[in-house]
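On clarity, I found the account of how folds are encoded harder to follow than it need be. For illustration, here is how one protein appears when written out as sequence plus structure tokens.
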Amino acid sequence: MTESPAPDRTLPTFDELDRLSTEELRERSFDVARERKDLGFFWSIMQRLSRADDANELDGSPNSIGPTIDDAVALWREFTGHEYGESEPLLRAAFIDYLLKHPHQD
């Protein structure tokens, strides 16, 4: 009979992530999404922004010629200027959720 492996205690918990600044959460979740080439994550973040109407050229279609992940990150920085405003609680929740579902692989 084989023993199941011990749970990985290095994975962050919700409480640990919640103690981080919004900017640290953004950096971590963006790093993971870049590694995973997860354009869908960036698109979901753009939709949460209060000024997301300005992102009409990002249709989220995997076959579209338009934006790349780096384009989405640049657009994010342009939109926010790191001022999250009323969107901050929703963005924090999205960042934390993403990091819990997709832990960083070293």
User: Anything to note?
Assistant: The CA atoms of residues 14 and 101 lie 11 Å apart. The two ends are 30 Å apart (CA to CA).
